[in-house]
Structure formats: structure tokens, C-alpha cells
Design a protein that fits this description.
heterodimer, A: alpha+beta, Enolase-like, domain 1, 5-stranded antiparallel β-sheet, 4-stranded antiparallel β-sheet, B: alpha+beta, Ubiquitin-like (UB roll), 5-stranded mixed β-sheet, 15% strand, binds flavin-adenine dinucleotide, binds FE2/S2 (inorganic) cluster
Chain lengths: 263, 150
Amino acid sequence: MEVLNPHTLEEALQAKAEHPDAVPIQGGTDVMVELNFDRRRPEVLLNLNEVGELRGWSRENGTLRLGSGLTYTEAMEAPLAELLPALAEASRTVGSPQIRNRGTIGGNLGTASPAGDALPPLLVEGAEVELASTRGVRRVALHEFLVGPKRNAAEPDELIAAVRVAPSGGQQTFMKVGPRNAMVIAVCSLAVVADRERGELRASFGSSGPVAGLVSCPLDEAASLPELVVEAASPIDDVRGTAAYRRHALGVLARRALERCLA
Amino acid sequence: MRIEVAVNGEQREADVWPGESLLFALRERLGLPGSKNACEQGECGSCSVLLDGTLVCACLVLAAQADGHEVVTVEGLADDGALHPVQKAFVEAGAVQCGFCTPGLVVATADLLARRSDPSEDEIREALSGNLCRCTGYQKIFDAVRLAAR
Ligand SMILES: Cc1cc2nc3c(=O)[nH]c(=O)nc-3n(C[C@H](O)[C@H](O)[C@H](O)COP(=O)(O)OP(=O)(O)OC[C@H]3O[C@@H](n4cnc5c(N)ncnc54)[C@H](O)[C@@H]3O)c2cc1C
Ligand code: FES
Ligand code: FES
């Protein structure tokens, strides 16, 4: 086993091109659990912590560029939290302070879990994923990037460089169902935004299908949203909850979200 | 592979296996068993340390990622043998039973109080939500945090 420690994005992309099997590691909150329990023994680990270009966020005209190394703790801080309030709410529900200090948005996309809490808030805001390789940079809509449970559209030589999102400025919220406030993998979750500019409501649900789902309806048909969400969901019975409970809970969350977003 | 880490203010070197955690390196290579290993999956907080001043679970940091960085463990909180105010408060409040969770809770509490000297009840609960205790029922731990904040 070997650890590569690039210090620039260029070095990191070079390393990934030379070692397409290398497993990137940022916060390590998913990767380390696999290593500690010997579920995975990659030949090469690609440590991205020293790559400055992946950290923080920036604003270009109306678009935000969130570095893939942006932590949940950073996403909870103003002014970013005011620009993407649902992402900030979702971030606050992730794990514990220790997990939020290390865990990153890029890592959540990399893992592409149906329960990933950063995904619904980014989906309702129409986020794009910036994938980089020595071949160049391409942008993929987040809903196309998530191709299946724990599967994403990145090629073996690509790294997730950033997430791009143009905040709608609409009232929005994120809600998550689980047995306690901290340390909970969502039983189900829901993000909703009321985009007044486009006259549209968008909702995205987590832990209720193979990937986080996305639905929308005109603002003046708001009353139909809960049913749209419940119909689009395809939950299963598992250790965290039953499909029937998840459907019921999503309907309740959607009605509450409407109260919050249309107030 | 060899890593160099500033641990509790002292420059230390260690030979580590590339896939091992910072927690393992601290305990098994650097002779610092204060950080506890209870779950190795970020759930219990008993391995809490400060990495470049940020509270993290040492079990979820690759030892190689700490190369060239600063780590403070529970062993680094006492000043020349004098207990840190948080350590004193845990003793005084009777917040320690088996003690396995204590190092992590002490580090997490020290981190909270460094950021917020007078935390609210909710802030205390949120700050310590990543640290499990199977003995005390948490009341004495919250007493200790309030005592240390005074
Ligand atoms: C105790 C605990 C609680 C948790 N609670 C939650 C929770 O409440 N909600 C939630 O959504 N998640 C939770 N998680 C899971 C995890 O914290 C998140 O998925 C987090 O966002 C992962 O980020 P990371 O930087 O730590 O990822 P890492 O572990 O570093 O990487 C995760 C995956 O992404 C890949 N990857 C990382 N960076 C890149 C990149 N730049 N390009 C390409 N691939 C990349 C890695 O190879 C790996 O496959 C929890 C984990 C733990 C241990
Ligand atoms: S041992 Fe690290 S969180 Fe439990
Ligand atoms: S005192 Fe025993 S786990 Fe907390």
C-alpha cells in the first residue's frame, strides 16, 4: 500500500491519471471506516488534503463554486449558509462536530449514498459537478452524476474538483427523519425550495430510492407537491425503517416544508 | 512510510503502515494511549484530538494525512503536570466512572470552551453529541462542562 500526497491540483490529476485505481481520500470519514474494518485494501491512496485548490468556496458572478474539500462545518458558516440555507441545515444534521469538521461535500458526492445529506439541498438548487482530469474539465448535472446507489459518473482518471451552483434565493429547507438529532443516517430526508423567479417548487428526497430523487411543480400547484414526492419515491424496507413508513414520513415532511417555504 | 507530526508541541517521527489511522499511530507508535479506541468508525468520539486546532476523530484521519501537521491529544492539555481546568472540573463534578469516554469528552469540552466561553445548554449538547458515554447518563458530564465554563 502506498499514499500519494500531491500539493497542487495538477499533481493530483497527474497522479490519478497514472494510478486510475487510486482511492482519493479527503475527510476520510467514509474511506477510513472501510480501511479500519479491512473492507477495502487499495493499492494506492490519494490524499487530497494538501491540495489548496480543492478547499473553500468562491463566487464568480452569480455562481458559487464549492471546492470538493469544503467541510460541513464551513458550509454552516455565514455568508455561505445564507446563500445556500438548505445545505447549511443539512450540514448541521451530519454526524457530529468531529464528523462535520472533517467530512466534505466532495466526499459525499464521491460516496454517492442514497442517504447522502448534502445531495438533496444541492439537487433542488440545480447544482453541477465539476470533474477534472489531465484531459480537461467537464461539468455534469448532479442528477446525472448520481447514477446508482454508491455509484457516480466520474471516470477512473477524474477527480471531483468542485460543485457549481447558482443560488435561487428562494425560501428553502431541509428535513431529516432519524432516531436522534446527531449521528443519524437519514431514515428519509427532504429538501424543498420555492423558486419565485422561475415560479417553481423543487423537492429532493434522500434514503427513499436508489439515488436521491428530484421532482418539481409550478408554484401555484403547491398543494400537489406532497403527492408528487411520495409517488416519485421508491423506498425499500431496511434496518432503518420500512418503505411504508418512509412514504408516510415523506408526505408529512413535504407538507411541513411547504409551510416553511411558502410562509 | 515515515511521518513527522508535531504532537503536543513536540516534533515527533514515526514509521507507519500507509493504511493506518492517526489513532493507531498515536497509541501504538508514539506511546500516547490517552486517546481511546472504542469503535474505529467515528461514532463514539473517544479518540477525539485536535488536528491543526480542529476537533476530529483520530480514528478517521489517515496517519499519513497528519504528516507535517499539528496534533494535540488529551496528554497535551495539562500544563507542566497541572491539570487543565476541564480535567479538574471532570474530577470535581464526578463526571468519570469507567473513564473510557473521558479523554474524548475532555478534549471536546476544551474545544467547545475555547470557542465559546459561556455555552448555552443546547450548545453543550450539540458540541458533545459525538461523544458517547455508557456509564454516567451525561448529567455529571454536563455539570463538569458548566463548572469548567465558570
Ligand atoms: C460517524 C459518522 C457519521 C456520519 N454521518 C453522516 C450523515 O449524517 N450524513 C451523511 O450524508 N453522511 C454521513 N457520514 C458519511 C460521511 O461523513 C460523508 O459521506 C462525508 O461527506 C464524506 O466526506 P469525506 O471527505 O470524509 O470523504 P472520504 O471518506 O474522504 O471519501 C469518500 C468517497 O469519496 C471519494 N472522494 C473523495 N474526494 C474525492 C474527489 N475529490 N474526487 C473523487 N472522489 C473523491 C473517496 O474515494 C471515497 O470513495 C457519516 C460518517 C461517519 C463516520
Ligand atoms: S474510536 Fe474514533 S470515534 Fe470511536
Ligand atoms: S464513564 Fe464509562 S463510558 Fe463514560
